[in-house]
Design brief:
683 residues, alpha/beta, Alpha-Beta Plaits, Rossmann fold, Immunoglobulin-like, seven-stranded parallel β-sheet, 17 helices, globular, transmembrane, glycoprotein, phosphoprotein
């Protein structure tokens, strides 16, 4: 067993980390010579001689920077990390990463084959039909709109003179040809890969740019916007963290308004990347990013779309169904102790959308990398309209506008659709009358509302149950910085039995950039009559100080309570012994999966074990999630402890307690482990 583990650990390091290369992040921006002096002084004073700073030749090279890429000889690498980390000017040292983020274009192999053979005009008609398996079944043929802008009624804003003028849009992708006929305002093209090539060799960047600003044939939303093209992927779809960091710094210096990132990856622990995204939005850049194409699995959100300060976009079809490929929530940053946040933020069309082809003309693509520039184009159009009115817009106010104006899709839960479908015209109305404010995502908590509030609505609360945690994002449209005054307070409605609910709130004291969070833990009060059932309600108040004023906002809360179920019907899911994902080097359990050795979408009853959870609930069982050690639960309340694929070690006290629980309370322990060694089992 262990030989396999070590092999996969090595592969994972090779894929995600560039061996012996480190990103050294400083606590400020310095010129090349100054940064070199800091690193040189730290390393040479410790006797480390085999190192060098890698040269980065790009558009940002002549400007001060807050990082360097350092190569250190393997013999000195550990010592070098210790020395650099202790330096007062150096913030942190992180591994250089590669092949971490993917172009979120969904490839439908069947459709591609259809198009390929359809172009071959000499193919026999019967053969072509057989190839596409149309003889097996019949479908209602739906009309795919040729103009996405017409579907979202962008032409209404165009007639008002709102066309994207005055807005700088950064497109981080695979480049764009300067001679492409669809674009009239390509302000700047930059290459960050070192190839020296500015053109698009894949077609992905051209398509994305077209949805935002194409001026002919397949129109984009904001044809008069100023396009800043950042080529951050090679034609082999290779990219490095350092390329993004340089490009992000340059975007900040260029004071772009909107940035589209139709890419993503599972690794929210790429700290330099995450930090730089925060810095971008803190500087007023509205970032829109694709949520990922790892659906229909839950817990598969991509970074940076899963960050609070970023507008994360999922995909839908033109008949308003969630696209199968669109990644689902919840976020997994908070696991195993907490619970994930609501994402995606919003959804838009991402299936069979027409856009610019790399060779001219139009083609159709699917994926959240398509839905993202649809929203980015809409945001660009909205921004130009507001700037023309002499008003300002920031990442939080734009996000609040999109969420408040979106159309809720019926029968679809919040971890699939976020706040709903993009409504461009309604968003313009909301933004035109927008008053700076603090708001929540979700805007309310109703644990009785199905299907939208899945999974909360599928299981009522009861006394002695493990606390239910709802994680709420606090959006601050007042300013980039805010802080909580006092503490959030729960106000129960006594006329609606709110006093039967105990509410504990953890929260971020500081809101930066533009956002913070509240983790709301709900348990049934011990004062609740044993046989009582019904609904309870109240609200949470929180006061935010920002922009020299105090703003108090309310979060409505409603839940259902039932008497405690029989212990034989209560199952405790062990979440505590699952690693936080994505971990540093832990490989995927399935050794047959070669292309993605990281088991990154977490083990949780509401993510990759959603099917098991729904089966248990439909069979009459109640499933609770344990996010603490075994010493923290009362086995007298449960019939079974469910342990699936644990990775963390068990403390001696935990083992002793479980042994006692089995002997004293007849607690059943059900274990599913994917790692095993046959020879050990036979012994």
């Amino acid at each position: 067993m262990y030989s396999y583990i070590y092999i996969y650990i090595y592969i994972y390091i090779c894929v995600l980390f560039v061996l012996l290369e480190y990103i050294v992040t400083f606590n400020g921006y310095y010129h090349n010579e100054t940064r070199y002096k800091y690193i040189s002084a730290a390393l040479k004073s410790s006797g480390i001689v085999n190192w060098r700073i890698l040269d980065r030749k790009n558009a940002a090279s002549k400007y001060p920077s807050d990082f360097d890429v350092l190569f250190v000889d393997e013999f000195y690498s550990i010592k070098a990390l210790d020395v650099l980390t202790d330096h007062p000017v150096i913030k942190k040292v992180s591994p250089q990463r590669v092949v971490q983020r993917n172009l979120n274009e969904y490839v439908n192999e069947t459709e591609n084959n259809v198009l390929l053979h359809k172009r071959s005009l000499g193919q026999d008609v019967k053969f072509w039909y057989k190839l596409n398996k149309r003889y097996k079944t019949r479908h209602i043929l739906r009309i795919v709109p040729s103009q996405i802008t017409k579907v979202l009624k962008a032409d209404v804003l165009w007639r008002l003179g709102i066309t994207g003028k005055g807005v700088k849009v950064a497109i981080f992708d695979t480049g764009l040809s300067v001679s492409h006929p669809h674009f009239k305002r390509v302000t700047e093209r930059t290459d960050w890969t070192g190839d020296g090539d500015l053109d698009d060799g894949l077609g992905h960047g051209t398509f994305v740019a077209g949805l935002i600003a194409s001026n002919r044939e397949c129109f984009g939303f904001a044809p008069d916007a100023d396009l800043h093209i950042f080529r951050v992927f090679t034609n082999n779809q290779v990219s490095y963290t350092s390329w993004f960091l340089d490009a992000f710094n340059y975007a900040i210096m260029k004071k772009v308004h909107v940035l589209n990132l139709s890419i993503g990856g599972p690794d929210f622990m790429d700290q330099p990347f995450v930090d730089k995204v925060w810095e971008l939005t803190a500087n007023g850049v509205i970032m829109i990013s694709a949520i990922g194409n790892d659906g229909p699995l839950y817990g598969t959100l991509n970074n940076p779309a899963d960050q609070m300060d970023v507008i994360g976009v999922g995909g839908i079809s033109f008949d308003d169904h969630i696209a199968k490929f669109s990644s689902r929530g919840m976020t997994t940053w908070e696991l195993p102790q907490g619970y994930g946040r609501l994402k995606p933020d919003i959804v838009s069309y991402g299936t069979d959308v027409h856009g610019s082809s790399v060779s001219g003309g139009c083609r159709s693509l699917s994926g959240t990398s398509v839905a993202s520039p649809v929203v980015a184009g809409a945001v660009t159009l909205l921004t130009s309209g507001i700037l023309a009115q002499g008003k300002v817009v920031n990442p939080a106010s734009m996000k609040q506008t999109l969420l408040a104006s979106s159309q809720r899709l019926p029968g679809i839960n919040m971890f699939e659709q976020g706040h709903g479908k993009l409504d461009l015209l309604q968003a313009y109305k909301v933004l035109s009358s927008y008053v700076p404010q603090v708001s929540f995502s979700p805007s309310y908590i109703d644990l009785t509302e199905c299907q939208y509030m899945w999974p909360y609505c599928t299981q009522p609360l009861y006394y002695t149950g493990i606390p239910i945690i709802v994680n709420v994002t606090v959006l601050n449209g007042l300013d980039v910085f805010g802080k909580v005054i006092g503490i959030p307070i729960w106000y129960p409605y006594f006329h609606d039995n709110g006093h039967y609910l105990d509410v504990t709130i953890s929260y971020s004291q500081i809101l930066w950039p533009w956002s913070g969070w509240m983790a709301i833990a709900l348990v049934v009060s011990q004062t609740t009559p044993e046989d009582w059932s019904g609904t309870v309600s109240g609200h949470i108040e929180i006061t935010i100080e920002s922009a020299n004023t105090n703003h108090t906002v309310k979060l409505p809360l409603r839940a259902a309570i039932i008497p405690p179920p029989p212990r034989i019907r209560r199952i405790l899911w062990d979440q505590y012994h699952n690693l936080r994902y994505p971990p540093g080097y832990f490989p995927r359990d399935n050794l047959n999966v070669k292309n993605d050795p990281l088991d990154w979408n977490a083990d949780h009853i509401h993510t990759n074990f959603k099917g098991l959870y729904q089966h248990l609930r439909s069979s009459g069982y109640y499933v609770e999630v344990l996010g603490e050690p075994y010493t923290c639960f009362n086995a007298a309340n449960y019939g079974s402890l469910l342990v699936i694929d644990p990775e963390e070690e068990y403390f001696t006290e935990e083992i002793t307690k479980i042994e006692n629980d089995i002997a004293k309370y007849n607690l059943s322990v059900i274990i599913f482990a994917e790692w095993y060694n046959v020879s050990v089992m036979q012994k």
